[in-house]
Write a structure and sequence with these properties.
The chain is 14% helix and 49% strand. The chain has one domain: Uncharacterised protein YcnI-like PF07987, DUF1775 (Immunoglobulin-like), CATH 2.60.40. The chain is built from one helix and 14 strands; from the N terminus they run H-E-E-E-E-E-E-E-E-E-E-E-E-E-E. It has a five-stranded antiparallel β-sheet, with no helix packed on it. It has a four-stranded antiparallel β-sheet with strand order 1-3-8-5, with no helix packed on it. It has a three-stranded mixed β-sheet with strand order 2-14-9, with no helix packed on it.
């Protein structure tokens, strides 16, 4: 009987690990920042399925001022502006299945917000895309940055 339980252990472990891996998706970091502060943000983009990622699109929340963008060798980005403000960034890079990339930028947070909701979308080589901001129950927590009040 013991041997049967030991053989079952790997199968049970996989049923716990696989759902956890399936929940991984495009996210913004850090999860908390200070209102009015200048912050380095990172967008983590994993390719969990069998189709390579080709782009990550980020919609910048109102009031956020993007100041600089990280530009490592091997990938490109496009900016969308409204007047002089950057309102969206599309990072382009082929990310193979089982790999991930981190895209960074520095932005100044607004002083008057309690949270920032970022638009996060991942595009794939087969032409499909996935929205990582909205889910049936509302906004995903991984697209939200909580703002702590600035000390006076």
């Amino acid at each position: 009987m013991k041997a049967f339980h030991l053989r079952l252990l790997p199968a049970v472990a996989l049923t716990v690990i696989i759902p956890a891996a399936a929940r991984a998706h495009t996210t913004i970091w850090p999860r908390e920042s200070m209102a009015g502060a200048t912050e380095k943000y990172s967008i983590r983009v994993p390719t969990e399925g069998k189709v390579a990622t080709t782009a990550a699109e980020i919609e910048v929340p109102d009031g956020v001022a993007v100041e600089t963008i990280g530009a490592p060798v091997g990938w490109k980005y496009e900016l969308k502006r409204k007047d002089d403000r950057i309102v969206a960034i599309t990072f382009k890079m082929d990310i193979k299945p089982g790999e991930f990339a981190e895209f960074t930028f520095v932005a100044r947070n607004p002083r008057d917000r309690k949270e920032l909701v970022w638009g996060l979308r991942q595009r794939f080589a087969d032409g499909t895309s996935t929205d990582f901001t909205h889910e049936p129950a509302g906004i995903r927590a991984t697209a939200v940055v909580k703002m702590t009040p600035r000390p006076d």
